[in-house]
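The aim of this short unit is practical: by the end, you should be able to scan a pair of folded records and say something sensible about each. We start with the first protein, listed as its amino acid sequence and then its structure tokens.
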Amino acid sequence: MSKSTLPRLKALRDEMGKAGITAFIIPGTDPHQSEYYASHWAARTWISGFDGSAGTAVVTTNQAGLWTDSRYFLQAAQQLEDSGFELFKEGLDIGEKKLTKPAVLSILKSDDISEIELTITEGKFHQVKRMFKAIGMEVIYLKRISMGKLKLDDTLMLGDYRELTAQEIAQIGGNV
């Protein structure tokens, strides 16, 4: 894009400061997460300059980032140049020797306390909490819903466990 996004980014941060907001999530879709949506919902494109169909922008008081998938890495790199936004395609620096692997972020609810679904392909020590801390956000509640192809049993209470079925063991590549 161009430097035309910089005044928009500054104006957003000014409004965030007035409202006491430390992070602002800007999805690349409408509230129904439609693949094709009215131009009214193109806030992510307006603020960042990135117009790919998949991606989420996050603006904090001192950093702005855009997450997208590999289909858009080249396009995003070009469109975010001089925009004030950093492209997060290779993961985040959470204090390890290597960056995290790319993650997929879906916003389920955006409010004072937002609710997201995050898909990661590795499991470093407290990785999700450290990823959000790296962008100036805090994880208040974390719930694992799957491990690989294995969907976790949502009927279990906190701290409970059960043995895996033969089918579940096969799902994760184990021998029965």
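Turning to the second protein, read its sequence before its tokens, just as you did above.
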Amino acid sequence: MPRSSLQTDSSAEPERTGEKQDESNFDGFVFRYPGRGLQPLINPPLSPVGNLKNLPRDQPDPGAVIVSEESSRARAAIGAFASALQAELKNAMQQGGPVNAIAVCNTTAMPITAEVSSEQGLMLSRVSLKNRNPANAPNDWQREILESFENRKAAGEELATMAWSEVAAIDGKQQFRFMKAIPTGALCLQCHGSNMSPEVSARLAELYPGDKATGYTEGDIRGAFVVTRNL
């Protein structure tokens, strides 16, 4: 499959604002938002490629501009998903601990993913080399990037900002692709570690008979967010 505009994206987190907002951390993101659940996102429109072709030589490369704009769109979508799921899991943990959180994640993660994808006009998903849900198994190119993330981690790169993007040519059309690594935090180990409670293990076996997403330690790459959008 031919690819173009291959980029490794390790930019910093979204810019902070002066507005006082709630702050929390989830899957390597620090989120600041005024309340729980999905928040309206304002995405700048993409600059038409045709208009960019005639820019003076000192202007940014059109392909780089598109990748930058699409990467910002992808990060915003990932942030909306993660903050909404975090709110659901936090409430579930308060009401019934990790066993309850597993059940809530099982029933809400996919609907939230679909909602964000529809609102943002893209396709959002999560994948892992050790997936829990069969729907989160990577395809060939996603597996390649997940493996490259492991190599980048071994070379000392920070997981919090580890990302990748490209524009790929598919059947004569262009598709933007973006992946961001998901670090394993301490709280993740309650459902993804090696020393889970018998109740958690039993619940996972019930809901995910083929579960492979255990045995992690803090700081491992647990998977990645994936965003694709046809250009």
